[in-house]
Design a protein that fits this description.
By secondary structure, this protein is mainly β. The chain has one domain. The chain is about 10% helix and about 40% strand. It is built from 2 helices and 12 strands; from the N terminus they run αββαββββββββββ. Strands 2, 3, 4, 5, 6, 7 and 11 form a 7-stranded antiparallel beta sheet that branches. Strands 1, 8, 9, 10 and 12 form a 5-stranded antiparallel beta sheet that branches. A hairpin with a 2-residue loop joins β4 and β5. It is elongated.
Length: about 170
Amino acid sequence: MIRHHFREGTTMPKDLIDEAQSYNGETAEAEVVVTIPKRDEVLSASTDEPKLEEKLDTRALQAADFMWGAPLRSGDCKLSGLINGTLDKGPTLRLRSDGTAELLSRFFSTDDGDAWVVVRLVLFDSNGTALFTFPRFSSPGTVTDNQVINWVARLSFPAVFFSSVTGANMTYSC
């Protein structure tokens, strides 16, 4: 069964729907929350101008969190949030302006030998254009029934896309 979660006024491109259905997996889209670190400006004692080293510091790392609004389910498996305040929600995809990323989640299965498989994870711009697709990856497998695994998948993407990403879509199975 394919599930689609879209923000009002957006649609998933038909080719992605067709591909998701061919995997017989589930599909879900995330909502975005962007966080940009606040930089306090340091003034010199003699002027109101920022100190020279502050003007040259352009390495401030920015982050954008894409959160699924509800736990994702596939068969006997569930993927929920890992960050405080998201345990009853879906996972969080955290992108950083340096091209690093993490999928922060809690994986649960009622059966041993299960793993959460991310068949396709796509980053989109505001026009719905796919910017980047992460390679297929999966969680560690469960070794007992009713096991919970705190799972942080470390990922990377071309940093040049960071400022253009406005959405993410995951096709998955268990």
